[in-house]
Design goal:
This protein is α/β, with parallel strands linked by helices. The protein has two domains: 65 residues, Hypothetical PUA domain-like, domain 1 (Ribosomal Protein L25, Chain P, Beta Barrel); 162 residues, SPOUT methyltransferase, trefoil knot domain (Alpha/beta knot, 3-Layer(aba) Sandwich), CATH 3.40.1280.10. The protein contains seven helices and eleven strands. The strands form two sheets. It has a seven-stranded parallel β-sheet. A four-stranded mixed β-sheet has the order 1-2-3-4. α2 packs parallel to α7. The longest helix is centred in the last third of the chain and has 15 residues. The protein is elongated and about 65 Å long. It starts with a strand and ends with a helix.
């Protein structure tokens, strides 16, 4: 936890001893009263939180002083064929840490439909993954998270102001490493573990996506998302 994240005004009341953030403060950081931690308000300012009191149960009371703006997310949208829930959770965490601005999970022809109704979504467990990634990346600005049951619906959410790229090993137009931005933002689409169907390839091309590759190897969705995001962010000048 590189950043202690509070919801609006949450710091004004003590955090309970069994709150994961407090547990981390006690067991990993081993902080004491008077110590100062990097902190921020979700959707708001970054600053410093001072531990005012740790009571006999381990509950923590803080003071928070905002002092700077958080870096905004990068203008990168990812459309991801929904993978298994544990993989989706890791993607939410790591892509949030990396600064992706928007992540759209989509149902696909070859993907497992039940993944879209798992506990990750029905119980909103995805929010914890995003906040963990924000704390890792020292950002208070969460990405926009959405899910839809079809590729058509997911593409319809785009503004039309992005470069459109899709990863695929079948007849790619060019390697992603050669991507040269034509606009200030980009959407990168990648399929589920079993890849895109022929129908989805046609949809992507018909909707203006250029098909690109990450080389000859067949990669897991998680690996492709991280490699693809890094190349796009580098091309856009964000890393």
């Amino acid at each position: 936890m590189n950043l202690l994240l509070f919801r609006e005004d949450e710091w004004k009341s003590p955090l309970s001893h069994d709150d994961p953030r407090v547990i981390h403060i006690h067991t990993i950081l081993k902080s004491a009263e008077g110590d100062v931690l990097d902190a921020g308000i979700i959707g708001g300012m970054l600053g410093r939180a001072r531990i005012l009191e740790i009571d006999e149960r381990g509950n923590c009371r803080f003071d928070f002083i905002p002092d700077r703006e958080s870096h905004p997310p990068a203008p990168l949208t990812l459309i991801i064929g929904t993978p298994r829930p544990p993989t989706a959770k890791r993607l939410l965490r790591d892509l949030s840490a990396a600064g992706a601005g928007r992540i759209i999970f989509t149902g696909t022809d070859l993907g497992e439909k039940s993944y879209l109704t798992s506990r990750l979504w029905s119980r909103e467990e995805w929010k914890e993954a995003v906040e963990t990634g924000m704390a890792q990346g020292e950002s208070t600005r969460p990405p926009v998270i959405e899910k839809f049951y079809s590729l058509y619906k997911s593409i319809d959410q785009l503004s039309g102001e992005e470069d459109l790229l899709a990863l695929d090993n079948v007849n790619p137009d060019f390697p992603l490493k050669e991507y040269c931005p034509g606009k200030n933002s980009c959407c990168l689409a990648l399929g589920p573990e079993r890849g895109w169907s022929d129908r989805e390839r046609e949809i992507l091309r018909d909707r203006g996506f250029r098909i690109c590759s990450l080389g000859d190897r067949v990669l897991r969705t998680e690996t492709a998302a991280h490699m693809g995001s890094a190349l796009v962010l580098a091309a856009l000048g964000y890393i």
